[in-house]
């Protein structure tokens, strides 16, 4: 037997009240984008039902269910999805299908879990659990275990229809990409920043990227790394733009004209200013960084405050309370970790001070910044930006 539909269950979207329809439509749209790489003959439609979306599979889709599952697990806004079998809302037919599905695999214990949102169906969910469970027990001889079953038979009774399934797969949860506006994420090539971008996507933001490099004073390894990272992140957001900014001319000016201990802070103030300018061009409303409180010298409260003072748009830090192990764990999950640890010459490692300031005062940083032609350096950097589109 092969499933004829995939039920897509959301969570947070269900709390959106009168705006719920907008979020459902965006999730529906993102599902279509995710499945675009499959043949048009894979599914006939993606419809909306109470508390879930339904992908109606054609014969080809039934034969490609494993590939569809692998693609759907990356969709933000979906808590879980389940390849399922549609059946009419008739207790006997639901029971027969459930017994058939539960008779084909090896397991020791089971339970039945019914969700009944359609109150016109005359049998309560508890009665369905008991009667269908009794039928499976009689047919298979397996033990009932309500707390830790080896296998669960799920029954959804909704919108005049019934669905039976035995497997469900986790999605990314959160909100559909595109419901929370646009942001510009600073992608360094390290472990943290792609994880921060992922969390922005998971909260519904459309993410563009800016990467600062010091070519030709360093090699292009960091650029190649961020390209590879973006290819990994494309499973969550299909279309992504990358802006490559040469930071070396600014770094040389900072090195020659300012106090050594403030170099990293000055670099970062330039980086957020340039990112803000690019964000405005892209109509993005905020910046995203991979900062984690206290992780490095530039990420103390004092230094983050001084850096953020240089811009007027919000600077979002999704990882602010994460420790390194938590970030690494997520980086492995989204498959950017192995790329991040590849050796490269990071732009901030160029002309780095031996003893960077950890508790800089804004007044002191502004004194140093007055030694530079800030606006000219920013405009020069923006003029030389190279943009790449990933689709």
Approximate shape: elongated
CATH 2nd-level architecture of the largest domain: 3-Layer(aba) Sandwich
CATH superfamily heading of the largest domain? HUPs
Helix tally?
A: 14
**What percentage of amino acids are in beta strands?**
15-25%
Head-to-tail CA distance between termini: 36 Å
Please state the CA-atom Rg, rounded to the nearest Å. Answer: 26 Å
Task: Characterize the biggest β-sheet.
Answer: 9 strands, mixed
CATH class of the largest domain: Alpha Beta
Unreliable stretches covering 5 or more consecutive residues: none
**Integer average pLDDT:** 93
Structural class: alpha/beta
Q: What number of domains? A: 2
What is the number of strand segments? 15
Overview of the molecule:
The protein is of the alpha/beta class. It has 2 domains: 5-170, 2-Layer Sandwich (VC0802-like), CATH 3.30.2130; 182-390, HUPs (Rossmann fold), CATH 3.40.50.620. Helices cover 38% and strands 21% of the residues. The chain is built from 14 helices and 15 strands. Strands 1, 2, 3, 4, 5, 6, 7, 8 and 9 form a 9-stranded mixed beta sheet that branches. A 6-stranded mixed beta sheet has the order 14-13-10-11-12-15, sandwiched between helices. Helix 9 (263-281) packs across helix 10 (301-308). The longest helix is centred in the C-terminal third of the chain and has 19 residues, at 263-281. It is elongated and about 85 Å long.
